[in-house]
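Minimal example, chain plus FE2/S2 (inorganic) cluster.
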Amino acid sequence: MREEVAFRLNGHDVAVEVDVHRTLLDVLRDVLGEMGTKEGCGEGECGACTVLVDDAAVVSCLYPVCEADGTSVTTVEGLFEPGGELSPVQTAYLEFGGTQCGFCTPGMIMASVALLAENPDPSEEEIRYALTGNLCRCTGYVQIVESVRAAAELMMERPA
Ligand code: FES
Ligand code: FES
């Protein structure tokens, strides 16, 4: 069964007619061409596909696209600053070695953005807990935790 699903994607309205059984991840990548969101396990285990739906982090490989109707969806492509610069979280991941092969990075970054929106000054333990659902084969997580801490500092230093 096909239905029209309409939502805001990275600040722009989109509407697509899709099979209601498709996932948000499928539609983002295959229909809307937003390739920044990665598919790892496809089973909700790795977090590579994490995006924000109404500012909450969700694993888009398990998220039925019809549930996105009327919501605001943010992917890693939507994080750039108005002038096109990298966001503080992206900058910190780059500068503190939070990304190596990069496959987990979009999902890690989106989970980090959700954490910092809720808790602007998280401890190492809180960062590790918030990123429990995001797996990385490369970094050993130390640089990722440092990147999130650095992003928190950058964001707190910003003028209000
Ligand atoms: S691809 Fe969605 S959790 Fe792994
Ligand atoms: S940087 Fe390679 S999986 Fe995380």
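Helices lie at 24-31, 88-95, 105-118, 124-130, 142-157. The chain has two domains: 2-77, 88-157.
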